[in-house]
Design brief:
26% strand, mainly beta, binds zinc ion, 76 residues
Length: 76
Amino acid sequence: MCYQVVERYSVCRCLYYKHAVDPCAAYGQSGHTVQEKTVLVGYTCNSHSSHRTQLGYGMGVLPDSGYESGAYPPTR
Ligand SMILES: [Zn+2]
Ligand SMILES: [Zn+2]
């Protein structure tokens, strides 16, 4: 099984960095899948930082830290 490390912000779940796939011997064969490994980093990205409250989007208010519904859509 191949692994691909995907780093995400722990609060807003935006993508921080997507690493290259670490291939195994079966890479490229039919039915073979790549397992994503999510690594949480920091808190929020720049666009979801609480310092950007002057933006005119409808989702200007951030939830408190600990909000973990997993269904939090990106702003754009
Ligand atoms: Zn593999
Ligand atoms: Zn974000």
